[in-house]
Amino acid sequence: MFVVLFILWMVLNGQCNLEIVCFGFVISGTVFWFGCRYLDYSLKKELGFYRLFPHIFVYFLVLVREIVKANVDAIRLALSFRYEIDPVVVKFKTDLKTDMAKAILANSITLTPGTITISVEGDEFTVHALDRDLVQGICESVFVKRLRKMEALAEESR
Asked: What is the torsion angle, in degrees rounded to the nearest 10, for the CA atoms of residue 86, residue 75, residue 92 and residue 61?
């Protein structure tokens, strides 16, 4: 993190001389110390993030794919004259452990067109869907599987 802060300092300054390098070194060190001391930041947590980064990137790609698929389904529903739309509110439980994973799941569900997370209370999610077919297998969706894998990796790195 110190290196990132120092590089950011140098890039935003636009010039490089001894005074700016020294001042950037001190400022970056101070911000890094503050983060470690008061913001519960540590080098171990940062290394854990770097270990998870490929999985986060794949999750993002899966999210984009699911958003595109859900867009196609929502357009199909909206333009279909023969199909009766059947809005539904579904409750399901998940075995995700961390609040972060639950928040990511709730936001991922909301980002996919045709579904919106109404509430998250403990392990129970309440989701509104434009049609019953959109929430089939939601409790074992690709989002849940990927988040479980990321939670397991994060747990190993602790």
From this structure: 170
d(Cα 51, Cα 53) in Å, to the nearest integer? 6
Using the predicted structure, report yes or no on whether residue 61 has a pLDDT greater than 70: yes
What is the distance between the alpha carbons of residues 158 and 151, in angstroms, rounded to a whole number? 11
116 is written with which tokens? 């919106």
Measured CA distances, 99 to 16, 39, 106, 121, 147 (Å): 43, 18, 10, 11, 11
Q: Could you tell me the two tokens for 146?
A: 């990927």
Dist CA 134 CA 66 (whole Å): 11
Which H/E stretch holds residue 123? none
Q: Which amino acid is at 41?
A: Y
In DSSP terms, 91 is beta-bridged to 126
pLDDT tens digits, 83-121: 788 899 999 999 999 999 999 999 999 999 989 999 999
Q: Does the pTM of the predicted model rise above 0.70?
A: yes
Outline where the chain has alpha helix (H). Answer: 2-13, 18-38, 43-79, 99-111, 142-157
